[in-house]
């Protein structure tokens, strides 16, 4: 395994930022680490990269315990922190040379040019970092994370704050890096996971709540449902009484309901009967599968 986390615990006062989580990432996998704000993603990543000590459990990278041997693990990890700390007064090449020196990279000139090409920095590579757009600054961060050719990349929200074109471009870079490296990257955006990842680990309030391939997640949690919108407000009991095969009922907007039932066709009929009987107006009635976005919302509520 390239990454293994076992019963990891990190507390701040009484708050468990990371609460006994365990997961593993195999060599060559691209795994999305997904969760709402404050879920514990950055904390886990900081422990994995040796920047933070856990209060319990272990974190391993390429078979080495991070806390026991931080130097060896740092040499095998490329880390792009959420804040992407860069020296704005330095030129792109100057900064990458500096990072190459920090990592004791041999043949620095050659490696700096290589990473510039890998992350698509060539057109902006003669500028000062402070003059670059956010997307290009992010590329500099990625290039720095790659400079020592690590086996594992840990990227903390690499596309946050970028415009839609830049997001797609950075995703492309991540996807192509994933052909040769193990990547764990955090995001809030489910489409990003769908676009880039083999697998997704969802974390909420410090706990892993799903660890599946996207297809598994969909079939495990995704279920056919009806979404109905009435013109009128109504009590949930009306729907509970009307639909005989109801398995789940959720109010998604003031007059809109999501209904899961074992017999969807019958449920639709019963909804129409309810509307006629009670003089209610159905504005829209759709059936389909829960999208991954909806799934994420319902898992992390
Ligand atoms: N240094 C700290 N002191 C106190 N609490 C902290 C500290 N760092 C993180 N926390 C808390 O731990 C929890 C997890 O934070 P973390 O930054 O790991 O979440 P996250 O999933 O990365 O969130 P985001 O998506 O917003 O970056 C949060 O409630 C946060 O407030």
TrEMBL record:
- InterPro entries, per the entry: AAA+_ATPase, ABC_transporter-like_ATP-bd, DrrA1/2-like_C, Motility-assoc_ABC_GldA, P-loop_NTPase
Q: Name one GO molecular function term.
A: ATP binding
Asked whether the UniProt record includes RNA-binding among its keywords, one would answer no
Q: Which Gene3D superfamilies match?
A: P-loop containing nucleotide triphosphate hydrolases (3.40.50.300)
Please give the superkingdom of this protein's source: Bacteria
Q: Which UniProt keywords are given for this protein, alphabetically ordered?
A: ATP-binding, Nucleotide-binding, Transport
Matching entries from Pfam families are given as: ABC_tran, DrrA1-3_C
By its UniProt entry, which NCBIfam families does this protein fall under?
GldA_ABC_ATP
Q: Could you say which protein family the record assigns here?
A: Belongs to the ABC transporter superfamily.
Q: What is this protein called?
A: Putative ABC transporter ATP-binding protein
Whose protein is this, by species? Flavihumibacter petaseus NBRC 106054
